Amino acid sequence: MHTQWSAVDEYINSLFPSDSALDAVLHATRAAGMPQINVSPVQGRLLHVLALACNARKILEIGTLAGYSAIWMARALPADGKLITLEADPKHVDVARANIARAGLADRVEVRLGTALDILPKLAVEEAGPFDLVFIDADKENLTVYFDWSVRLARPGSLIIVDNVIRGGEVLNSSSSDAGLQGVRRFNEALAADPRVTATILQMVGSKGHDGMALAVVRGENRELRTENQELRTRN
After folding, report:
1. Span 42-54, mean pLDDT?
2. How many other C-beta atoms can be found within 10 angstroms of the C-beta atom of residue 45?
3. Which stretch of 26-35, 86-95, 114-123, 189-198 has the lowest confidence by average pLDDT?
4. Structure confidence by residue, pLDDT tens digits, 76-126
5. What is the DSSP string of 17-73?
6. Which helix (H) or strand (E) holds 199?
7. Which of these, 45, 97, 98, 36, lies nearest to 75 by C-alpha position?
8. Can you state the angle between helices 116-126 and 223-235, rounded to 10 degrees?
């Protein structure tokens, strides 16, 4: 079945091919010995379409890797748009910055080095948001925390996307000892109960196997964001 999923992805890619700049990112990822865990070209195009649908002017990405998904999303930004992407690995940051510059997007994309748990509160203090779109593709143990900060840094109507929330169907395994999987299960349950968003989870199959994305739209007036950001600024 996986072979057929990959073949269908190849068929879709033949209809909507990527370009040399994006292909160069994949080559650079392999050449640097980095993990091959970036989104697929089909998923990258989906992120691009969703960014366009949001009319996004500010995008936040948690988990840069080599910059592949950042480039897909940044291409949807207007000339004065901004994407901030967070990456904890210095080697990944260097590769990502080179890839982003090669794609001609260095003026729109800022790669910040550090852990998301450290940087997200600083973004609130800086009033870097509100972000129109947030894409979370980072370590799974902290997904719930990343999502909470994403809501705080968003506005009513913002779209938050979380990758890898099905894990080949392993989310059904409540007794698993895998910390990442348990982080995904905690996140999925918290998402379903979160009154701040309207959300769903989509299964996906393709060249990346069987997984899925969570999609959440921030509801109402985000008073919590304004209140907590004011408290952060006061303390700092």
Report:
1. 97
2. 18
3. 26-35
4. 999 999 999 999 999 999 999 999 999 999 999 999 999 999 999 999 999
5. ---HHHHHHHHHHHHTT--S-SPPHHHHHHHHHHHHHTT-SEEEEE--TTSHHHHHH
6. strand 197-206
7. 45
8. 90
Tell me the C-alpha distance between 210 and 169, whole Å.
7
User: Can you tell me whether residue 217 is helix, strand or coil?
Assistant: strand
What pLDDT does residue 221 have? 64
Which residues are CB-contacts of 227 (< 8 A; sequence separation ≥ 6)? none
Tokens 């948690």, residue? 62
Strand partners, 87: 113
CB atoms within 10 A of CB 139: 16
Give DSSP secondary structure letters for 71-139.
HHHHTTS-TT-EEEEEES-HHHHHHHHHHHHHTT-TTTEEEEES-HHHHHHHHHHHT----SEEEE-S-
Rounded to two decimals, what is the model's pTM? Answer: 0.91
Q: Of the candidates 171, 175, 163, which has an alpha carbon nearest to the alpha carbon of residue 65?
A: 163
Could you give the CA distance from residue 225 to residue 97 in angstroms, rounded to a whole number?
30
Domains detected in the chain: 2-235 (3.40.50.150)
| Torsion angle of the four alpha carbons 6, 30, 81, 142, in this order, in degrees rounded to the nearest 10 | 80
**Dihedral sign computed on CA atoms, order 12, 50, 57, 125:** negative
Q: How far apart are CA 34 and CA 229, in angstroms?
A: 36
